[in-house]
Amino acid sequence: MSNFIEELYYGNIEPQELSTELSGKLKKKLSKLSEKEEQLTAKLNGEEKELFLNYASAYTEFSSIINSDSFISGFRLGAKFTYDTFVKNTKG
To answer: What CA–CA distance (Å, rounded) separates 9 from 15?
Structure first.
């Protein structure tokens, strides 16, 4: 890949695909989370179950936004490091 930014622009690089393999520790946590959700939803009925599922959905949306913001912040921080390393210091 000769031009990373160009490849990213044209959609040939998808950052979310770079970390698709879950670590063993993360797999365990995800499994436990799933198990607990199943146990909880099995004990809830009607409105309570609907309320919990709505809560879980809202939390998922919230997490998605937070993850996106974290990615953007990290990308910007990396860009600032790069700028400071290769551009800013060459002027002085």
So the answer is: 12
